[in-house]
Design goal:
Distance between the termini: 18 Å
Radius of gyration: 21 Å
Order of helices and strands: HEHEHEHEHHHHHHHEHEHE
Number of helices: 13
Structural class: alpha/beta
Number of strands: 7
Largest sheet: 7 strands, mixed
Shape: globular
Length: 312
């Protein structure tokens, strides 16, 4: 049975907040995972809705985000379990809690507004800051190390693969000529010098996206966590994933659709090495999108897509 949603009117609702709570169907005494807990907005909503006995395990690589989440979720006491770790360590963390399976898993992928707006993190060229872009400050790889150490061809491939940057080779050549680059605005200026502005989007946007994804191995982590998440769900449990760009969304969409297929060999013509029933049910073929109202209140929500699947 789903508990009523009790809200305390947060100052800022995270992206697709109401859609997430509706999709996850939190109930007591359910167990839930927030793989990217951030400041704890989604997690708070889930814990409120699964009161009085529901519990949540929250992950984040960013210690600054985790410190905020601890404050946000402090009223829930021992019902909230927070760890500074990658969501790819999900099986180990569940074992530590002695949870055999969970009722719902949320993955809110990519960069948070809090990280984007924090001076000194290097995620944005709106402020001049060191070329960092690390979610985990202990990560030995920073954006500066990639920009200043990769071969030109490697850098061009990175910009195309993770930023879908059509001018990747020209930008990579300009970066190599301008080395060393140490700050966000130095890099943005180099990109702008060789790549024309297209409409309102700054020409360095895709370069910064590509570097951030590479530094934090975001696409690798998404592909790794999805099968682990499905394995951790109870029958009827739900997986909800919010993505913000086409590369993430494609991985999630393809995974859910592949796991939603029943593999049955036709007579006299074996196609599959192993037959199996469908593992997931895709809740909607099309992703949920933010409402016009939400986009007006939070323009950064514009590119968000939510996909939901239920374990069979």
């Amino acid at each position: 049975m789903t508990c009523p949603i009790i809200m305390t009117a947060p100052l800022h609702l995270p992206v697709l907040y109401h859609e997430i709570i509706h999709a996850m169907r939190p109930h007591s005494p359910g167990r839930y995972v927030d793989g990217t807990v951030g400041a704890g907005g989604h997690a708070r909503g889930i814990l409120e809705a699964c009161a009085p006995e529901g519990q949540l395990l929250g992950f984040d690589l960013d210690p600054h985000a985790l410190a905020l989440a601890r404050k946000t979720l402090a009223p829930f006491g021992r019902r909230a379990h927070l760890v500074q770790a990658s969501y790819t360590s999900l099986p180990h963390q569940l074992q530590q809690l002695e949870w055999d399976a969970v009722d719902g898993i949320l993955l809110d992928l990519g960069l948070s507004s809090m990280q984007l707006d924090t001076p000194g993190r290097g995620f944005s060229f709106q402020q001049d800051a060191p070329l960092d872009m690390r979610f985990d400050p202990d990560n030995p790889v920073s954006a500066a190390s990639l920009v200043n150490e990769l071969e030109e061809e490697e850098l061009a491939d990175l910009l195309y693969r993770y930023g879908e940057e059509a001018d990747g080779r020209r930008i990579a050549r300009a970066i190599v000529r301008a080395r060393p680059l140490q700050t966000t605005r130095q890099l943005a200026a180099v990109v702008e010098s060789v790549s024309p502005r297209r409409g309102r989007v700054h020409p360095a946007t895709q370069t910064f996206q590509a570097l951030r994804i590479a530094v934090n191995e975001e696409l690798v982590s998404v592909a790794e966590v999805l099968p682990k998440a499905v394995a951790a769900l109870k029958t009827g449990g739900r997986l909800a994933v919010i993505s913000f760009h086409s590369l993430e969304d494609r991985i999630v969409k393809d995974f859910i659709r592949e796991q939603s297929r029943e593999l049955v060999n036709p007579p006299y013509e074996p196609i599959y090495a192993e037959e199996r029933k469908a593992i997931l049910k895709e809740i909607s073929r099309k992703p949920m999108l933010p409402s016009e109202t939400e986009i007006k209140e939070n323009p950064r929500a514009r590119s968000a897509k939510l996909r939901i699947a239920e374990k069979l």
